[in-house]
Amino acid sequence: MRIDTLLRTSALCLALGLGFAAPALAQDPAQALADIGKHVMSLGPNGEKPEAASTVSLSDEELAKIKAMKAKAAIVMHYAGNDWSQAQIEGLKSQFDKMGIEVIATTDAGFKPDKQVADIETVMAQKPNIIVSIPTDPVATAAAYKAAAAGGAKLVFMDNVPQGFKAGTDYVSSVSADNYGNGVATAHLLAQALGGKGDVGLIFHAADFFVTKQRYDAVKKTLAENYPDIKIVAERGIGGPDFAGDAEKAAGAMLVSNPSIKGIWAVWDVPAEGVISAALTNGRDDLVIVNCDLGENVAINMAGNGPVKGLSAQRPYDQGVTEAMLAGYGLLNKP
Fold this sequence. Notes:
2 domains, alpha/beta, 43% helix, seven-stranded mixed sheet, five-stranded parallel sheet, Rossmann fold, elongated
């Protein structure tokens, strides 16, 4: 499947309120993949119904009001070491620039909750009007975000929200791709590349992180329900921060202990890079690798007929643009 087609497999959405019914899945992976873009499969962290990002807009009059505010924004990332994060940041900065909003800080917590708490406290010293962020841990970071909101910052989240937070009260909105749909898509891509049969391994994210858990749950459920001749014979979690290195070790151990493995699923592109290295080290040029996220290195590998045979990607630049526009909603007190 072409990359530009895969980019459309997960609809960008806002997690705001009940859910769409998932479509009936087919055992023909090509047909299942063709059907995926017609439905959003994810709900928000608290079961919220998604709304289309296309519903977010600012009029010329509203943009003029925002520009006159001369607002300041901080971008507080969970982890900036992948192409997804960088695309989000670029989308945010581009749209903020159009809105006359100055980005005063961009931080990287390296997936460490204590570092993110410190980052929030540091940027609040600069009195931002807006914070756009993705919590590394919904529980451990909640108090810091609560303090930031109390200090006057309008909060917009990527993918996940802190525990106990209510949309429209504690934060403006949360913007996410259809990560459950991404997991479903990768299951069908894996089945398609394997011809519907074979032993596989899964490399998942061993953390309390909403969107990566969605992907993992989706790929397991989809394989179990649709492909009885594909067996998950090994699963290993990785915690980072060296996600490529951890995944290389995990995949290498899988291939040694389970030589029957024909394919490995990776939760995003950086771990997939580690799986590529493990395949090369173990002489497994026949291994099929499928992952969520469109990173440059895995895309190049797939384009060059490497072991990466499928990707299901979000639209992170557009996600960043939408988050910046929603920050404008916050400044205007627009629902």
